[in-house]
Design goal:
Elements lengths: L1 H14 L13 E6 L7 E6 L9 H11 L3 E4 L2 H8 L6 E2 L17 E6 L6 H4 L1 H11 L6 E6 L14 E4 L7 H6 L2 E3 L9 H8 L4 E4 L13 E4 L2 E4 L10 E4 L2 H13 L1 H15 L4 H11 L3
Parallel strand pairs: 1-2, 2-3, 3-4, 5-6, 5-8, 6-7, 8-9, 9-10
Antiparallel strand pairs: 11-12
């Protein structure tokens, strides 16, 4: 995500007539940086992400120190609220995703799909919950399938169901997965933005996900079906001791998937609405926000 945001931000600056150089030297000084909340890169602007309900004290201290000399930007209201609870002001920059919408494929078989990478922290993305919900929702239905695209370093999914296709190899493009699928599904309850969800609606595919975090910036009832998040202690690792994240109830996710399967007309309506909604979150719109929030 950091790399994608970097290139989107650079595109915005170029649209505004500025020359842009992208660097990775953390000791150099930049106009803007895309980094974590504890970033020490010298810069006038910091775009940062956060996904849990709390920050570590060192991150809080670092952000407060940064706020004296530079402006801090986040990508969603939840991150603004989390950082704001420590008295730190931020502004919000919506991100961009631009794709040509895909014609909805024939609905036999009906195809759910998920695209993600867990970077070794499977407890955050929780793709196994999607697999379990699918098997629970469709124990004896054979004209339905699930495609799960992960990366080679992701935790392997446990399933013996022939209707579930797991793609582990790296791909140059996942466009064909969006084209094949009908509804994107995510069980993640800790998204700073949610590019996979965003890319889905940009391709004209509606989404099933938790009502929490970054995806709420660009999803609404016209293009998504929401499930309730149940707040649980944030997993160990980079989120250790940092409050809570959302988690789905697998039974409720299964019920939502079954509902969607049984209501094809609604799927078609939300597919059209998905692309319409996505047109509000393009590079043009991001450029307007960047111009305003960066004072350009």
């Amino acid at each position: 995500s950091f790399g994608r945001v970097t290139h989107s931000l650079a595109a915005c600056f170029r649209r505004l007539g500025y020359s842009v150089t992208i660097g990775e030297d953390r000791k150099a000084e930049y106009f803007a940086a895309i980094d974590g909340p504890s970033s020490v890169v010298k810069t006038k602007h910091l775009i940062t992400f956060w996904e849990t309900t709390e920050l570590h004290p060192p991150d809080i201290a670092c952000l407060k120190m940064q706020a004296r000399s530079r402006k801090i930007h986040v990508t969603c209201k939840q991150a603004a609220d989390v950082i704001g609870q420590y008295g730190i002001k931020t502004s919000k920059i919506p991100l961009a995703s631009e794709y040509t919408p895909c014609v909805l494929a024939p609905m036999k078989p009906f195809t759910f799909y998920t695209i993600y990478q867990d970077a070794g922290y499977w407890e955050r993305k929780r793709a196994q919950d999607v697999v379990d919900a699918f098997e629970l929702a469709f124990p004896k239905v054979f004209d339905v399938r699930l495609i799960a695209k992960q990366n080679p370093n992701c935790k392997e999914l446990i399933t013996f169901d022939k209707r579930i296709e797991v793609i582990r190899q790296s791909l140059q493009s996942v466009k064909h997965i969006h084209e094949t699928g009908h509804v994107f599904v995510s069980a993640c309850g800790a998204e700073g933005w949610g590019y996979p969800h965003h890319d889905a609606i940009a391709h004209g595919r509606p989404v099933i996900c938790q009502r929490i975090g970054g995806p709420l910036e660009f999803l609404d009832a016209t293009c998504a079906w929401f499930v309730k998040p149940y707040m649980h202690k944030a997993p160990k690792g980079i989120y250790s001791g940092m409050g809570k994240i959302g988690r789905v109830n697998v039974n409720e996710l299964a019920a939502k998937m079954r509902y969607v399967y049984d209501n094809r007309a609604e799927v078609m309506e939300k597919s059209t609405a998905a692309f319409i909604r996505a047109r509000n979150f393009t590079l043009d719109q991001m450029t307007v926000s960047v111009k305003k929030d960066f004072g350009l």
